[in-house]
Amino acid sequence: MKMPQVKQDYYPMKGGLDLLTPAIQLFPGKVFDAQNYEPEISGGYKRIYGYERFDGHTSPTAATYSLISITLSGTIAVGDTVTGATSGATGKALGLFNSNQDLILGRVTGTFVSGENLQVSAATQAVSTSTATVGGSGSPSNDADYTLLAANDLRTSISAVPGSGRIRGIWVFGDVVYAFRDNAGGTAGDMYKSTASGWSQVTFGSEFTFSTGVLAPTVGQTIKGATSGATGVVTAVLLRAGAWSGTGVGSIVYTVTAGTFSSGELIKDNALATTYCTTTSVGAAITRAAGGSMEFVTANFTGSTATKKMYGCDGVNKAFEFDGTTYVPIRTGMTTDTPTHIQAHRNYLFLSFLGSVQYSALGAPYSWTAVLGAGEIATGDYVTGMIPQGGTGSGSSMAIFTSGKTFMLYGSSSSDFQLVISTFDLGYSAFTAQPVGNNTFGLTARGVQSLITTLTYGDFEYASITHLIQSLITAKRGLETASSSSQIKNQYRLFFNDNTGIVVGLTGGAVDGIMYLNYGRVVRCITTATLSTGEEVTYFGSDDGYVYRDNIGTSFDGETIEAWIRPAFNNLKSPRLRKRFRRAVFEVKAEGYAQVNVAYDLGYGSPNVNPSAIASDTPLIGGGGYWDQFTWDQFTWDTQIFADPSISIEGTEKNISFFFYSNRAQDKSHTVQGVTLLYSERRVER
User: Is there a contact between 429 and 440 (Cβ–Cβ < 8 Å)?
Assistant: First the structure.
């Protein structure tokens, strides 16, 4: 009797989420349902990394555990400090396992020795029967569990940014993370920086305005009020108009040493020998109002490599400059001086006020007078963002996005700036536009749009990249909160206020696919930066007042990452031909220990498909696991190289789809790269 020929078909996982194409036409490597997987730049779908709280303390992901074998005679509770009576070593008890024969310790200092008494509060509770071994479990599963215990322990040392309400903004400057949050009473805005011991508040100093400036005091110099007798140490001198010849107008930021400067008095040196200027306001502490949504840029307006500074605005306060030490309010002269968006372009600082875009004098972010070259550009619509675009040395431009139109600003200086409407009916949502490589992405009423420079410089094409998931984007419209881009991953991410988001993966300039994210908390503001070491880092702030480092670790700050993909139903190019499916072999890549559950559906998941006989439990190739048709197949992937676990399939139908699912906090990321199906052809269904 002739047996049916067993055929095989391989298809890669690629193309991303597709909610538009009819099921029968879908490429089998696309997915029709997914969560917390991302398109991998090298191919396949990768379960995303997690995120963890951050304040400058040691990262939970860097935590290690030590295993020590013991004979327990008393009680050791989780959280107890265990001390070796002989060695003097200490560690924090994370748990007892293996019938209380294995003690897991975190935060170990010193070296435990075998045969010593282990004490809690000077009372012996056990005797060690081994030395303490870092990462000492021989079981990959246990090792993952114990590592998570150590990470969760370190997590408790990391605090939220002091204050109340959500994080207003985050920026990385000089390898330091800065976070903004309202104070405890919600009456003012505060600024904090990360340190090895947690968040440290940045003090703003004091300020007065002046006129009739005749000589600029130097930074670090002590100044004195000729009438008030107040003194202070100068931290910044800002000339906004005029010149240091008797017409200078500006402000001085200082640290108070004594008294309060009064309005209308002469400012002199400490010896009252030299006059600098005349105050036009009293000296007052610099404060920030509560509220707002912040935007930042790092810029350098001088020729020195040591003068990079961060600039920011939030819609409720004056724009500011910060050099890592001194906070300087920037006064533009606007009646309502609360810009909403900020950018640096062509050595000018740009700020937006409703539908007005204003720029400083050349190389002078403090000066906003037309006499010195500052100017204004009217857009006629609410400005939502500004991003410089590529071009030649003489022709680079800046996109100015508004809620209803998109403009391109051409020119190299105030003498030849020219604003050109690029499209009349395509506006971008605030905080969604991001540069990715040589392109720009942002959310519009038509979905996420790509702004592409054409071969003929000066023209721009617009293309929606989310048309395959337009129903999802339409449902999320108005919920957008923040966006980010990653040059390392070549990705654009967009987040919504219902804890979800999308990730757009690219190879070169082409979109690989889009996948759906669910972080379990709102991403209110986010920033990506490259540190001086070359490492790319991403941080986001949420409603709970915590700052989180993104794209790191195995969990969502200690909680599980629930992730799945449902690839399209594969009919093997014969939609009416029934097939006897026999086995599926999965091409996967794991970064370490991971457990992944896999199930399959036949015939578009029809309940009318009769199940075959239950397959007996069988070890899987490439990992530990078992198959049960009525539950899951669980793969254990613990390898740095490619693996090919497989499952036996019982069933005859026209098509098949798989469901990959994981929901653990201790598992490393893995990538599903492709599937090989083994099957035999049956009859054509009429």
Answer: no
